[in-house]
Amino acid sequence: MKNNTTLIHSALSTYKINIYLKNIILVFFGTFLLTVSSKIQVPFWPVPMTMQTFVVFIIGMSYGSKLAFATLAAYLLEGAFGLPVFAKGGGLLYLTGPTAGYLYGMMIAAWVIGTFADLNYNDSYFKSLISLIIGTSIIFLFGVGYLGSIIGFEKAFAAGLYPFILSEIFKISLAVTLIPNITKNINK
Fold first, then answer.
1. Distance between CA atoms of residues 147 and 115, nearest Å
2. Distance CA 26, CA 73 (A)
3. Residues 172, 129: contact at Cβ < 8 Å?
């Protein structure tokens, strides 16, 4: 988490705050954004459509691999301790329910997207697009894979993938438009 080349550390480099305190603040800010984004939803069964994946994209692309992973791990821990951070609440049972695969997939995806950010993929629209497509694929691989083990794969694709394709294209497009532009402006 000492990587000061990430977008968020570049943006905050003018503030004289201890790096560990800065990272703790960023983790809690990230978990707050994830919680808020989980509440912005279109109700579907068994997986609600939320803005969480968009926030995962932004966290991964702006925090870098280690801080993004720590943020998503903290988010899952908050939920495991019963805080109502997920779309419909919190608790250990939530981490084994139908959406558990998506939650774990988001943690891995944030790390992968953050790894690409560490490699300066944020400064290009095309490279940002590649990292987000890979991240989205990871989320749905884990999510649909786990959901399929519960309700069957045909139903998992019908309920846990197909309805989300258009919204994911929108979220990826929005993130690809925002992050490279922010990166360019910060690095001027």
1. 27
2. 13
3. yes
Q: Count other Cβ atoms within 10 Å, centred on residue 99.
A: 24
Q: What angle, rounded to 10 degrees, do the helices at 125-151 and 153-160 form?
A: 140
Q: Is 49 helix (H, G, I), strand (E, B) or coil?
A: strand
Residue 161: per-residue pLDDT: 94
Range 63-87 average pLDDT:
96
> How many CB atoms lie under 10 A from the CB of residue 155?
13
Residue 16 identity: K
Compute the C-alpha angle 132/138/163, nearest 5°. Answer: 85
Write the CB contacts of 129 (distance below 8 Å, at least 6 apart in sequence).
172, 176
* Domain 7-186, second-level architecture: Orthogonal Bundle (1.10)
The answer to whether 95 touches 105, Cβ cutoff 8 Å, is no
**Torsion sign over Cα 83, 139, 41, 154:** negative
Give the model's confidence band at 1: pLDDT under 50 very low, under 70 low, under 90 confident, else very high: very low
Contacts of 4 (CB under 8 A, 6+ apart): 10, 13, 19
Q: Tell me the whole-structure pTM to 2 decimals.
A: 0.87
For residue 49, the cross-strand partners are: 42
- What single letter denotes the amino acid at residue 68? A
